[in-house]
Amino acid sequence: MISTLKTSPIDTNSRFFQLTMRQANPLDAKIGMSKRRIREWYQHFDGNVYVAFSGGKDSTVLLDLVRSIYPEVPAVFCDTGLEFPEIRDFVKMVENVVWLKPKLHFKDVLNRYGYPVISKRIAQAIHEVRTTKSEYLHKLRLTGEKGTEQFHQ
């Protein structure tokens, strides 16, 4: 089932304002806020955590922040076979990284499930259109129209 989160214009404006204010903070404040969130995350899960690590700049910075507080936290790298050789070489240099290899090659995933799309919500709707036997659900996913009760049968 697909659910949509409805926010009021006030909520959206408030969130945008908060984001703008946080972006304007100096780097030290941003790092401090990030470390507070990391401590909350670590404590919430009783230290049973890891960092999803792609070898890119964002996950590298996150891993550095996490390990500046909790050096033993492992990183997990998913080797899809599509990574640039330089990324794979970089990940090999980082300590305490668990390498995962998908059971299906990416080409097989595409053949079985199709190309990835904008969001999980959209992907779910496409999947339902392709596989449903319900005329009502098919019409709902294609047009967004709920139609009449005749489709519920």
Low-pLDDT runs:
none
Between the first and last Cα atoms, what is the distance in angstroms? 18 Å
Largest sheet, spatial ordering of strands: 1-2-3
Overall 3D form = flat
Overall pLDDT, averaged? 87
Give the helices and strands as they follow along the chain. Answer: HHEHEHEHHH
Number of helices: 7
Q: Which percent range describes the beta-strand content?
A: 5-15%
Instruction: Report the CATH C-level class of the largest domain.
Output: Alpha Beta
What is the total tally of β strands? 3
Q: Which class of secondary structure composition applies to the elements?
A: mainly alpha
What is the oligomeric state here? Answer: single chain
What CATH architecture of the largest domain would you give? 3-Layer(aba) Sandwich
Question: Would you give an account of this structure?
Answer:
The protein is mainly alpha-helical and 153 residues long. The protein has 2 domains: 26-104, 3-Layer(aba) Sandwich (Rossmann fold); 117-153, no CATH class. It is 55% helix and 7% strand. A 3-stranded parallel β-sheet has the order 1-2-3, with helices on one face. Helix 6 (120-131) packs antiparallel against helix 7. It starts with 8 loop residues before the first helix and ends in a 10-residue tail after the last helix.
